[in-house]
């Protein structure tokens, strides 16, 4: 599985909630995503971001719920997603928010 | 050309031999047998030993933890004789698929660590893991029973074995003691009533001494016989 080596940046993220049932067979990608979100660089990018893991045993699908600082919410159901897809979806939204923030600062400066 | 010459030429025509079959088509391809890595053998032996010697095996998701926190966690766990083990999934999965811990296979995906101990100290382990939010408990195998996260938490809330054994013994003996009390109940009640009657009679003895004395004499043997019956019943119950 080709997982991007680029670090996950949690600058615009308020909280990350990961719910999974570890005895199921479709949680591998969600667990890999969780490892990336908990990596050293990711944690260093935003110390205030809260990452919670809800480990259950009810046969439910693995779900990643990301709350952004500007109120946006990204819910990813990782049962049929690869880790690369989840990370690219998350990173694309982070990059979009970076652009928005840059435009705002330019407008304020001008 | 003359016919004989033609015939001779046809007879002596060069017939090229069939090209030989190349060696690569004949000789079978022998795959070189890869010798097992000695380190892999050692790890496999260690995994087998760990699973055999431990009564409590907890599997946790290992996200990045700063080395200081990891060191502190290992120190606190070591105080309770709980060891932190890391094994590669490629070594553990084949061992698990053959052993009785088959149902733990789905847990060994991604980055894991194992907390193993020959004793069962679930409460202490959970208290220490609470302080390290990066380590998430996925499941455990305690006393040959596979438990989920909630199972481990409820196991920690159970009372000690001696207390539960005492409760069971108490419940079992309760029925026998109740039977005894039921059997004795009628005779005990009768003796109490007679006692009260005697007291009432003796209270009225100040008015009529002779009659009270006769009444008491009559009651005396009856009371003693009732008392004897009650005592025989009690001895038969116990």
TrEMBL record, chain A:
Subcellular location: Mitochondrion
Family, similarity comment: Belongs to the mitochondrion-specific ribosomal protein mL53 family.
Record-given protein name: Large ribosomal subunit protein mL53
GO cellular component: mitochondrial large ribosomal subunit
Coiled coil stretches, renumbered: none
Statement: the UniProt record of this protein carries the keyword Ribonucleoprotein: yes
Keywords of the record: Mitochondrion, Ribonucleoprotein, Ribosomal protein, Transit peptide
PANTHER family: 39S RIBOSOMAL PROTEIN L53, MITOCHONDRIAL, LARGE RIBOSOMAL SUBUNIT PROTEIN ML53
InterPro entries: mtLSU_mL53, Ribosomal_mL53
Pfam families: MRP_L53
Signal peptide: none
Keyword Ribonucleoprotein: yes
UniProtKB/TrEMBL annotation, chain B:
Gene3D superfamilies the record matches: 3.30.70.1730
UniProtKB keywords: Ribonucleoprotein, Ribosomal protein
Region described as Disordered: 204-238
Keyword Ribonucleoprotein set for record: yes
CC terms in the record's Gene Ontology section: ribonucleoprotein complex; ribosome
Family: Belongs to the universal ribosomal protein uL10 family.
Name assigned to this protein: Large ribosomal subunit protein uL10m
Organism: Platysternon megacephalum
């Amino acid at each position: 599985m080709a997982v991007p080596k680029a670090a996950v940046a949690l600058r615009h993220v308020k909280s990350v909630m990961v719910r999974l049932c570890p005895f199921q067979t479709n949680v591998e990608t969600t667990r890999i995503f969780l490892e990336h979100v908990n990596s050293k660089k990711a944690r260093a990018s935003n110390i205030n971001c809260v990452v919670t893991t809800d480990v259950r045993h009810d046969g439910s699908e693995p779900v990643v719920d990301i709350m952004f600082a500007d109120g946006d919410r990204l819910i990813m159901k990782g049962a049929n997603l690869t880790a690369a897809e989840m990370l690219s979806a998350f990173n694309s939204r982070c990059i979009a928010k970076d652009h928005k923030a840059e435009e705002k600062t330019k407008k304020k400066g001008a | 050309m003359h016919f004989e010459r033609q015939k001779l030429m046809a007879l002596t025509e060069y017939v090229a031999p069939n090209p030989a079959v190349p060696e690569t088509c004949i000789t079978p391809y022998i795959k070189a047998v890869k010798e097992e890595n000695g380190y892999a053998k050692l790890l496999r032996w260690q995994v087998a030993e760990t699973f055999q010697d431990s009564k409590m095996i907890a599997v946790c998701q290992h996200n990045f933890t700063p080395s200081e926190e990891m060191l502190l966690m290992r120190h606190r766990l070591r105080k309770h004789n709980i060891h932190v083990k890391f094994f590669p999934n490629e070594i553990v999965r084949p061992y698990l698929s053959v052993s009785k811990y088959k149902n733990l296979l789905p847990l060994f995906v991604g980055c894991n660590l194992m907390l193993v101990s020959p004793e069962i100290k679930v409460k202490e382990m959970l208290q220490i893991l609470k302080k390290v939010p990066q380590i998430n408990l996925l499941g455990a195998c305690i006393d040959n029973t596979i438990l989920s996260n909630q199972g481990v938490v409820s196991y920690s809330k159970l009372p000690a074995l001696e207390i539960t054994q005492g409760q069971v013994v108490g419940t079992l003996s309760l029925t026998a003691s109740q039977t005894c009390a039921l059997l004795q109940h009628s005779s005990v009640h009768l003796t109490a009533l007679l006692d009260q009657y005697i007291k009432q009679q003796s209270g009225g003895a100040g008015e009529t001494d002779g009659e009270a004395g006769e009444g008491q004499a009559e009651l005396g043997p009856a009371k003693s016989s009732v008392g004897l019956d009650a005592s025989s019943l009690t001895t038969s119950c116990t």
